[in-house]
Amino acid sequence: MSQFYLTAVQLSICLGPMALGIFITMKIFNIPDITTDGSYTLGAVVTAVLLTNHWTALAVLPVCMLAGAAAGICTGLIHTKLRIDALLAGILVMTGLYSVNLIILGRSNTPLINMATLFNDFSIFKTDLYNQLFVALIIIIILIFLLRYLLLTDFGIAMRATGNNPVMTKSMGINNDIIKIIGLAIANALTALSGFLVAQYQNFTDINMGIGIVITGLGSVLIADALRIWMNVTNVGLQILLVLAGSLLFQLVLAFTLAMGIDPNFLKLVTALFVLLIVALPRVSQKLRGSISNNSKI
Amino acid sequence: MISLRRISKFFNKGKVTEVVALNDISLQINKGEFVVIVGANGSGKTTLLNIIEGSQMPTAGTIEINGQDVTPFPEYKRSRWVARVFQNPNNGTAPDLTILDNFRLASLRTQRKNLIIGVNEVFKKKVQEKISDLGMGLENKTDQLMGNLSGGQRQALTLLMSVMDDTDILLLDEPTAALDPKSALVVMNLADKLNKNLGITTVLITHNLKDAVAYGNRLIQLQEGKIARDLNTEDKTAVLIQEIYQWFE
Fold first, then answer.
1. Between the N and C ends of chain B, which has fewer C-beta atoms within 10 Å?
2. What is the residue extent of each domain of chain A?
């Protein structure tokens, strides 16, 4: 049973970069970007194709992230230069990426069994799962430090301010369009990194593996946001950690649901309902509190 | 120096709902001048400021800053010369960022925002020194979120932020409209001090006729998109509030 929950922890770490990507678009830039579904699969597809062509996993990593960044740039250009709503821009790129992914992969799925992946390159522990956890943790720790550094730099402050008050940033000499495009590129590069990790973790890439994945990332960010408000967190580093904690909580809830014996076919439905619960709960409790205080006034 | 040449601005041009916000205005504002602009609602005051700032483009005419034609430049490019304090205190700052982060951004208004961490102890000390001059007791709260401050505090800080980097022109768009009298006085005195001490060309829009008389060395009245009156220092000193009231009748 503990092994079962450990796999959920491992998956949450692999999906952590995607959650951080959604944190950047949704919480920092205030952009609802659903390119995620496509760029996640793109990362996995590029990984599968390059690994089967005997590239080393470490060489595949930057290519994956660049591919994800390119997808983000497409969404950013459509949104900022053609003045198309970010949501629609994301849908358009995501839809287009389905065909792009299919063309790159050449078929609907590719197994990666018996290939030199990032997770079986290192064998520090006897158990495979521990080795996988160790590698994933190293990557996520590096990512935490890099992202924290980025957001604290002058450029990072400009990024955070753009989503917070675009009127002000224009008068501060910031080209909002350019900074949004860069933000979307970073976010989708992180999402592709998750695709890269998950493809190697589950030893296969499937053309449909990204469908609905944005909800998982969204759920993680919403949990993090609820925790941030509850704990009154303003520190950038802690906010990043909360997003990863959100990803962990999300996967543990799903694992718990499966452990309860629920049909895996219902997993997406459970995921959607869980996210709905996270979004609705604070609003319902606020409404209830409002009605209680109104009654007490009467 | 700002030179506006034959500036016109039409909204919904050619439609039944066409509005002429500015009608063939020419205006020169010299370096270091403090120009106060008054006028009824809809006279074109804010449009004029928007056109100087670059957030709105003129339908016709050209604008020069320090002899350079900046007509096609968007707002973020004109920020090299122009700083603005908005009517709404919420517009001038990022509420979810700390006071220090807001000041850091302001200190880089004319520069590149690089991948270096600029918010350090040295910078914090510099900001604290600037803020302490306000006498609002905010110097020890620089790590607080800007959104936690009152409108008056935010407006005063916005004004200070505008001179964190080189500024030639300061645009004040009814900066005290949303403030209590005490905060309004702090903001106006600070604006006056910045103009006098640093020689920053200042343009103030106000509906407060007391401020229109008390501050600045030139008074302009806009009426239906045109300059109705343009008073130099001498005439402005002689003008009474009652007379200005009569302009609006």
1. C
2. 2-210
Mutate to test the interface with A, among B96, B155, B168 (most CBs of A within 10 A): B96
Share of chain A above pLDDT 90, in %: 70
Q: What is the CATH number of the domain that holds B17?
A: 3.40.50.300
**Chain B residue with the nearest C-alpha to that of A177:** B76
Q: How confident is the model at residue A275 (pLDDT cuts 50, 70, 90)?
A: confident
Q: A168 touching B, CB under 8 A?
A: yes
Question: Which H helix or E strand runs over B8?
Answer: strand B2-11
So what's the ipTM on this one?
Answer: 0.89
- Cβ contact, residue pair B113, A174, below 8 Å: yes
Q: Nearest-CA distance from B13 to chain A in Å? A: 22
Contact B114 A154 (CB under 8 A): yes
Q: How many domains does chain B have?
A: 1
In this predicted structure, the answer to whether residue A274 has a pLDDT above a threshold of 90 is no
CB contact under 8 A, B145 and A234: yes
Determine the pLDDT at residue B25.
Answer: 94
Interface test mutation site (partner B, options A168, A169, A177, max chain B beta carbons within 10 A) = A168
Residue B143 structural domain:
2-247
Looking at the predicted structure, is the pLDDT value of residue A173 above 50? yes
Interchain CB distance below 8 Å, B94 and A161: yes
Nearest CA-CA distance, residue A175 and chain B, Å: 6
Q: Which residue of B has its CA nearest to A169?
A: B76
Strand boundaries in B50-153, DSSP class E: 60-65, 68-69, 82-85
Distances (CA, A) of A241 to A109, A225, A233, B98, B107: 33, 11, 11, 19, 29
B114–A164 C-beta distance less than 8 A: no
Please state the φ and ψ torsions of residue A72, each to the nearest 5 degrees: -65, -40
A298 pLDDT exceeds 50?
no
Checking if the pLDDT of A294 tops 70, the result is no
**CA-closest candidate to residue B170, choices B141, B199, B201, B196:** B201
Q: Which residue has the tokens 């994956």?
A: A64
Would you say B188 and B211 are in contact if contact means Cβ atoms under 8 Å apart?
A: yes
Residues 6+ apart with CB under 8 A from B105: A154, A157, A158, A161, A169, A172, A174, B94, B97, B113
